[in-house]
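Appendix C. Worked example: Class I SAM-dependent methyltransferase
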Amino acid sequence: MACEAERIIGLYRRHARAWAEDRGTTLLEGAWLDRFLALLPPGAAVLDIGCGSAEPIGRYLIENGHAVTGIDSAPEMIGLCRERFPRGDWRAADMRALSLGRAFGGLLAWDSFFHLRPGDQRRMFPVFRSHAAPGAALMFTSGPAHGVAMVQFRGEPLYHASLDAAEYRALLAANGFEVAAHAVEDPACGGHTVWLARLG
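Step 2, the predicted output written as structure tokens:
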């Protein structure tokens, strides 16, 4: 499984345009994004960690008046972001080694963080904290329970992993975040398990 986890970046590099086509522009996440944005000051800078092609989530953040810095490990995804939003701040970077030297009012890791192995997920919480301004909101998706799930994308195995809810809560608390909302396999959001927290 560790081997499959290390193939994630290559998979998204090979299939960036296909992923963007499959993803489309339908915003199933709108209700959760509105909850996230409600915790932010007007115009707050948002760090989108694993931004993909910036469609539709990046677009929604921008259209709601937020300056978005998007990072993705696949340069091809970043290329799509730059095509769509040439004035944006889009950077090819591995979230595991992220060190931008600035803090954001909001941090988002939607359908990205859960591609990391469990140990790498645990190590991400100090990374979140180091990029969070006072009172910042953090939202990410996970699996519904501890374990690994494999699916297929364009004929290739696609790795997902999750810690259990108690461990996510402990990691958030240890890094100064308080859980504001949480849903397991939200039926109104395509079955996503969502965490929304705020830096205390």
